[in-house]
Specification:
Helix content is 40%, strand content 23%. It has a single domain, classed as Rossmann fold, CATH 3.40.50. It contains 8 helices and 6 strands, in the order E-H-E-E-H-E-H-H-E-H-H-E-H-H. A hairpin with a 2-residue loop joins strand 2 and strand 3. Strands 2-3-1-4-5-6 form a 6-stranded mixed sheet, sandwiched between helices.
Length: 199
């Protein structure tokens, strides 16, 4: 039997370079829609969705942080209180992949003492698939490199916190929806403290 009243609220913060698809991923997960064209986030945008996990109603609040460097001073406060962070890079933009460590450093400096699980997402795989099918020579980020970054982040967080921290890795296409629901669902189910579900 499902309790219709929201019993757990969790905050998840999305971070990554501008243009990697954070807002599109948020829209795809929350309402299964995709809007063509790029409109940059100013400061932060929030939206939420109620889901059911083991009979409990969970309110998932997604905080979508602007990726432009001019908002760095504004972003720091929004990391605090996050139960999870979604770190997004664009598989067709190697710089966004290389900048992932910068985003982790910013999060760690903004959340001293907090241990926050990470969902690493390589987005826009529809574009990478098109390039591969067309046999074009483009410097895209492949899946093996995503897995390698997952290992590097896991090790970095282990050394920083002196304990294991969950770091999941998924590849997605916000445009087609491929992998988006699976990535968010798996991550959310894994970060909700077991004692809250069992209450």
């Amino acid at each position: 039997m499902i309790n219709e009243k929201v019993q757990i609220r969790i905050k998840i913060t999305l971070m990554g370079d501008m243009g990697v698809g954070k807002t599109s991923l948020r829209r795809r997960y929350l309402s299964d829609e995709f809007l063509e064209g790029y409109i940059g986030t100013i400061g932060v945008e929030t939206a939420s969705k109620d889901i059911i996990v083991q009979g409990k109603k969970i309110n998932v609040q997604l905080w979508d942080l602007a990726g432009h460097h001019q908002f760095s001073s504004v972003r720091t406060v929004f990391y605090q209180g996050s139960m999870g962070v979604v770190l997004v890079y664009d598989v067709m933009d190697r710089k966004s992949y290389e900048n992932c460590m910068f985003w982790i450093e910013e999060m760690l400096k903004s959340t001293p003492g907090e241990i926050i699980p990470i969902l690493l997402i390589g987005n826009k795989i529809d574009l990478r698939n098109a390039v591969i099918e067309a046999d074009m020579s483009t410097d895209y980020v492949n899946t093996a490199e995503g897995l390698q970054l997952q290992e590097l982040l896991t090790e970095k967080l282990r050394k920083y916190h002196h304990t294991d921290v969950l770091v999941q890795f998924h590849e997605t296409s916000a445009m087609t929806g491929e992998g988006v629901l699976e990535a968010f669902t798996t991550f959310i189910e894994d970060i909700i403290p077991e004692f809250l579900i069992q209450e």
